[in-house]
Amino acid sequence: MRIVIPGGTGQVGTLLARAFHRDGHDVIALGRSPVEAPWRIVRWDPQRLGDWARSIDGADAVINMAGRSVNCRYNAKHRDEILRSRVGSTRIVGQAIARATRPPSTWLQASTATIYAHRYDAPNDDETGILGGAEADTPATWRFSIGVATAWERALDEADVPGTRKITSPGSTTRISFARSTGSWTAAR
Ligand SMILES: NC(=O)c1ccc[n+]([C@@H]2O[C@H](COP(=O)([O-])OP(=O)(O)OC[C@H]3O[C@@H](n4cnc5c(N)ncnc54)[C@H](OP(=O)(O)O)[C@@H]3O)[C@@H](O)[C@H]2O)c1
Predict the structure, then answer these.
(1) Would you give per-residue pLDDT tens digits along the chain (189 residues)?
(2) How far apart (Å, rounded) are the C-alpha atoms in residues 31 and 6?
(3) Is residue 79 domain-resident?
(4) How many Å lie between the centroid of ligand 1 and the Cα of residue 132?
(5) ω into residue 170 within 30 of 0, thus cis?
(6) Which letter does DSSP use for residue 118 in this model?
(7) Number of compact structural domains in the chain
(8) Residue 97 is assigned to a structural domain of this protein
(9) Predicted pLDDT of residue 2
(10) For the CA atoms of the chain, what is the radius of gyration?
(11) What is the pTM assigned to this prediction?
């Protein structure tokens, strides 16, 4: 299979790329700067369509991992980058898929555990988790993170790609998901 990983130069993307490459798949990681890897790295602009979008045309799967690291001080500049890098890159991946003459059958999209409500009565998981945002006692910093996660998933929902199955969680039509809390892939059919 050809597997394209926007943001595939980061922690999770590199693990995925290495595993898929080892298994014999044709892996293309999209990154903003060139890096050395045994698989293909294509330079892209996560806010603008360009030649890079050709790598998505004819791919079997797209796994979008792009987003500014959240490992930083949450000042105004970083907050803006955290939000815009996720929403913008998800929209542009959707546009690339929408324009493809041979769109990928599957688009897997990273999300985050911070979309869930803060609670002690039960664990939030991909099947039964309660989404956050409506709680009266949510601190402002958490509310920001919930807002980012919600906007990120909305960008995926709004992408008009009828030939491509979009997968995040919860609510996926197939139970393949990127576990928000652990960063691990699970597959259960
Ligand atoms: N790691 C986890 O345990 C975990 C858990 C839950 C959710 N997630 C989410 O899963 C995704 C991948 O996680 P990760 O740990 O692999 O993150 P990461 O190591 O920070 O990698 C993120 C990738 O996004 C790209 N990126 C950075 N800034 C960007 C920007 N402003 N615009 C577009 N792309 C940008 C980077 O590629 P270039 O700099 O090469 O462009 C990088 O390869 C993230 O969105 C993260 O929030 C991760």
Answers:
(1) 999 999 999 999 999 999 999 999 999 999 999 899 999 999 999 999 999 999 999 999 999 999 999 999 999 999 999 999 999 999 999 999 999 999 999 999 999 988 998 888 999 887 788 989 888 878 888 889 999 999 999 999 999 999 999 998 644 443 344 444 444 444 433
(2) 7
(3) yes
(4) 22
(5) yes
(6) P
(7) 1
(8) yes
(9) 98
(10) 16
(11) 0.91
Residue 71 CB less than 6 A away from ligand 1: no
Instruction: Specify if 166 maps to a domain.
Output: yes
Does 101 map to a domain? yes
Whether 6 is in the pocket of ligand 1, judged by its Cβ within 6 Å, is: no
Q: Which domain range does residue 43 map to? A: 2-113+151-188
Q: Whole-angstrom distance between the N-terminal and C-terminal Cα of the chain? A: 20
Query: Is residue 30 within 6 Å of ligand 1 at its C-beta?
Result: no
- Looking at residue 134, its pLDDT comes to 84
Q: How far apart are CA 59 and CA 72, in angstroms?
A: 33
Spatial CB neighbours of 183, under 8 Å, sequence gap ≥ 6: 11, 12
For residue 59 and ligand 1, the question of a CB distance below 6 A is answered with no
Question: What six digits make up the tokens of 102?
Answer: 């041979």
Nearest CA to ligand 1 atom 15: 11
Give me the CATH number covering residue 6: 3.40.50.720
Q: Tally Cβ neighbours within 10 Å of residue 171.
A: 11
Taking alpha carbons only, the member of 55, 184, 56, 173 closest to residue 113 is 184
* Structure confidence at residue 50 (pLDDT): 97
pLDDT at 169: 60
